[in-house]
Amino acid sequence: MDRFLEMQTFNAVVDVGSFVKAADALNMSKAAVSRYVVDLETRLGVRLLHRTTRRLSLTDEGHVFYSRSKELLAEVAEAEEEITSRSHAASGLLRINAPFTFGVLHLAPLWGAFRSLHPKVKLDVTLADRLVDLVEEGYDVAIRIARLDNSTLVSKRLASTRMVLCASPQYLALHGTPKEPADLTQHAVISYSYWSTKDEWHFDGPQGPVSVKTQPCIHTNSGDTCRAAALAHQGVILQPSFLVGPDLAAGTLVELLPQFRSLKLGIYAVYPTRKHVSAKVRALIDFLAAHFAQTRSLW
Q: Fewer CB within 10 A of the terminal residue: the chain, N end or C end?
């Protein structure tokens, strides 16, 4: 006898509350449903159901088996759905949210290649640095640059970046180079409004964690504006390496206090749930993971 079919039949009887209704739901005869349940009880050596002419109820053993077998059946259904989704062509509207600068620099060049692979997918890409609610705002996937230790979302790590303290050589020639984080209170600072710790910047130094309350001369919600101000010799910035990496390589910006490291952040693709992941979402996650696997750390 098929053990899987026994479990399915038993679960159906419990879910609908009768052998007759379970037979209708499974397109079986009542006799077949009864036989599967009896054979299951015989094989396990326990009674799973109390039967009377009026109602059915679970025994203690029945409660345990129902709970465990329901989980198992759900996992099998999820596995089948995943394989089915992989075998179907990705199609439909795919709504994506990403941070503005990262979206322009590192994602915009990829959309053409993605659509060449999946021409039935239509893209709706929104760039915004604020934290969006995927479910409430109807996004299929978001790119997050953060620490996701406590996130309830499902995530796929694509790459990493680190926050870099830097300024232009011209600014430093005029105002001096800070020797420790506390010196930043005497410097012009360009601050990013969405930075989680606001104007208090944190570092890990040789002697442990250090923080300093900066006094910004410019506040902005744009990392590009921070970078532009630094390149215009206006002050010190703390920005991700994926943005300022080329400037550091070219020497137009100089890293400060390299012995005092700021945060290293993951770059993730996030989506609401592992269950019922559509082919279009899976296609995007796989595509981005394959691309960024070549550059796990951006600068």
A: N
The dihedral formed by the CA atoms of 221, 224, 226 and 232, expressed in degrees to the nearest 10:
-150
pLDDT, one tens digit per residue, over 41-83 is 999 999 999 988 778 889 999 999 999 999 888 888 777 766 6
Residue range(s) of every CATH 3.40.190.10 domain in the chain: 92-160+265-295, 162-263
Residue 151's pLDDT is: 64
CA–CA dist 260, 255 (Å, integer): 11
Q: Which two tokens stand for residue 117?
A: 């692979």
Instruction: Give the confidence band of 296 by pLDDT, cuts at 50, 70, 90.
Output: low
Answer yes or no: CATH 3.40.190.10 is held by domain 162-263. yes
Q: E strands of the chain, at which residues? A: 49-51, 56-58, 92-98, 121-127, 141-146, 154-167, 189-192, 200-205, 208-213, 216-220, 237-240, 254-255, 264-271
pLDDT, one tens digit per residue, over 185-233 is 999 999 998 877 788 999 999 999 999 999 999 999 999 999 999 999 9
CATH of 92-160+265-295, one of 3.40.1190.20, 3.40.190.10, 3.10.105.10, 3.30.300.160: 3.40.190.10
Whether the CB-CB separation of 286 and 236 falls below 8 Å is answered with: no
At residue 197, the 3 state secondary structure works out as coil
In CATH, the architecture of 3-87 is Orthogonal Bundle (1.10)
| Model pLDDT, residue 73 | 86
